[in-house]
Specification:
about 260 residues, DNA-binding
DNA sequence: ATGGTCGCACCGCGA
């Protein structure tokens, strides 16, 4: 079972790349972030023609998440439904082949200490509570998404440049540690224990050519699922060429 | 070349 997370940075701008990538890589599950459109604008016919079902949670201009699957999707939920008013479409979940798939677009956070940063930390705590309440952690669960957090310093090429930012802050990292302590494992790490593998490069300042990258897109798996992993990699090629997303797909394969 | 972005929707914001 091949599970992928990819911040596609607009399904409209990435239309050809998205369909081409799906066709060539044939993932079992593809979690998308930053659709930047409402569900009605998602390329449903084209995706179905390639043999995929999907569930999307979108909004105009910003955010938006989706789960694509070759096999039936059930028990779809959108947002936290925790009583907190939140117009930002950042979470969709579903069951696929007995795996509870959580697809999240974690807030970027802006500057440390800003309103956006406060929102980011609050969102992460809401996610942790949602997972605690809705997931059976003795079963197969995968949290896939753009976490906007580089867990370790080795997930950042230039710590002097990014270390004080909201993607490396101790509070954000602690929130993820809480998630792992609930029973999740970063399914990617085992295959690249030395770090130095990135999933996002800033469009600005020639980030990709200089490999000024961070690993901020993750797939966290419960133990039952993580023990069945067979490989993990970043599809760096998708970051090359004309009009790439700033994020590359992160792939984890399970037996 | 000593700085170099993109997407959306509007001329700024978010990343």
């Amino acid at each position: 079972m091949k599970i992928v997370t990819w911040n596609v940075n607009s399904v409209k701008a990435r239309h050809e790349r998205l369909l081409s990538w799906l066709e060539r890589h044939q993932p079992d599950v593809l979690c998308l972030q930053e659709l930047k459109c409402v569900e009605e604008k998602f390329p449903a016919l084209e995706v179905r023609a390639l043999g995929y079902e999907f569930a999307a949670y979108g909004q105009k201009t910003y955010n938006g998440v989706a789960i694509l699957s070759r096999t039936p999707i059930s028990e779809v939920t959108r947002g936290f439904d925790d009583g907190v008013e939140d117009p930002q479409a950042r979470l969709i979940t579903a069951q696929v082949q007995g795996v509870h798939i959580i697809c999240g677009y974690f807030p970027n956070g802006g500057e440390v200490g800003s309103d956006k940063y406060i929102y980011k930390l609050a969102w992460m705590k809401r996610l942790n509570r949602w997972v605690q309440k809705h997931c059976d952690l003795t079963k197969d669960v995968a949290i896939c998404g753009d976490y906007n957090i580089a867990t370790l310093d080795s997930d950042v090429n230039r710590m002097h440049e990014w270390g004080d930012g909201s993607m490396c802050s101790p509070e954000g990292r602690e929130a993820l540690q809480e998630l792992r302590e609930m029973g999740f494992i970063d399914a990617f790490q085992k295959y690249h224990p030395e770090g130095g593998v990135y999933s996002w490069w800033d469009y600005r300042q020639l980030g990709f050519p200089k490999n000024n990258g961070l690993r901020i897109d993750h797939i966290y798996a419960t133990e039952s699922l993580a023990t069945r992993s067979t490989d993990a990699y970043v599809d760096r090629d998708e970051r090359k060429g004309k009009k790439p997303s700033d994020h590359a797909p992160v792939v984890v394969e399970f037996s």
